[in-house]
Amino acid sequence: MSDIExxxxxxxxxxxxxxxxxxxxxxxxxxxxxxxVVTHSEVDPRFRGQGLASELARQTLDQIRARDLKxxxxxxxxxxxxxxxPEYLDMVEEY
Length: 95
Description:
Layout: E1 4-9, E2 14-19, E3 22-32, E4 35-43, H1 52-66, E5 70-73, H2 76-84
Parallel strand pairs: 4-5
Antiparallel strand pairs: 1-2, 2-3, 3-4
């Protein structure tokens, strides 16, 4: 089983999903007072089909919640993920 983790690369304004230490995908964001605006996400084609996009979304949202921030899911994948996982709806802030 692979080691999967999501880290905030604040310098590049993106959360990165790492598989065995290798960057497999990212969620690009902008910050604004009290919220993180997720603008784009992608998983490297070599890593697709492993559920990494959902893991990236889940762990990213969990980290945003832990910071007591709101999220603006402009990225279509993140917007769909939040719709399908209503436990995150309370975090959504309109843009």
